[in-house]
Amino acid sequence: MKKDDIDNYHYSTKEIASYYDLTSRGLAYYEKQGVLKPDRDECSGYRNYSLNDCYNLYHSKLYANVGFSLREISRLLKEDDTNCVLVSIENEINEQRKKIELQQIILEHMKIIKDRLNAYQTGGQSFAITMRPLMRRLYVRRFEESHPWGEEQSKEFALWNQIIPVDTASLCYDAASVLNDEVKLNVGIGNIIREEDFVRFSLPESSRVESLPRVPCVETILQGDSNAIDQREWLNSTLQYMAEHHLRLCGDIVTSMLLVKGSDSHRQRYDLAWFPYEVE
């Protein structure tokens, strides 16, 4: 294309904004970042945008939709080395693939939560004899204690929480306090995740991370007051089912939170729970 032809490409602020779905403020921001370099009409002061500005806006949209920040976009637009641009694009592609994989896993977990709660809403509490999946559990605190704010613990907790609901909040009821018929139970607060996801997301091993082996369990959904999760009432219906079927609790009860809903004064919590058992 000849220079004279290029010079024929002139667009007003209104035109260029409509072509690329931007506001005049957005265009001014791009100009401030060095992405756009419009000429100004000497008489009116209005901006005129060139073909090069169109190229830059096109690629800005392209790079932004891939995931690049505006600072990275500005750098790429000024880069003369094609290989450098391609390396940056390849790196961003890999990052976006990781994000897409995470979103797919999150959607799968959300579907599981939805299906579990739909079944509960339709048929009420049910019980299944199953093998608890291989899992990892991060210990956070006892129910009656305040949250520890050590730097190392807080970083670990935040790392797990980045992949909610692949990892979920979890309760752990001490088997001894349950078997002793205590009304107020010994409850641990933590997070839980399946072993394959623990590995997939490279969560770190630590003294606070416990391995939960595959064991035969009564699986059910617990539902009740979210402020009373340390009360035996939470577990009574499942313990009654186990007694009626000659099953004895033989390990800590572990849960995975599905949902908390309702007003501040009446919040209901739903947990998927596993009760390890042995036949009496």
Description:
This protein is α+β, with helices and mostly antiparallel strands and 280 residues long. It is built from 10 helices and 11 strands. The strands form 2 sheets. Strands 3, 4, 5, 6, 7, 8, 9, 10 and 11 form a 9-stranded antiparallel beta sheet that branches. A two-stranded antiparallel ribbon has the order 1-2. A hairpin with a 6-residue loop joins strand 10 (253-261) and strand 11. The longest helix is centred in the middle third of the chain and has 42 residues, at 82-123. The chain is elongated, with a radius of gyration of 29 Å. The protein starts with a helix and ends with a strand.
For the largest beta-sheet, the strand count, sense and barrel status come to: 9 strands, antiparallel
- The secondary structure category is alpha+beta
Give the number of helices: 10
Kindly estimate the percentage of residues that lie in beta strands according to DSSP: 15-25%
Helix content: 40-55%
Number of strands: 11
Determine the N-to-C terminus distance.
Answer: 87 Å
Along the chain, the helix and strand elements come as: HHHEEHHHEEHEHEHEEHEEE
**Whole-number mean pLDDT:** 90
Q: What is the CA-based Rg, rounded?
A: 29 Å
Low-pLDDT residue intervals, each spanning 5 or more residues: 1-6
The backbone outline, from C-alpha atoms, is elongated
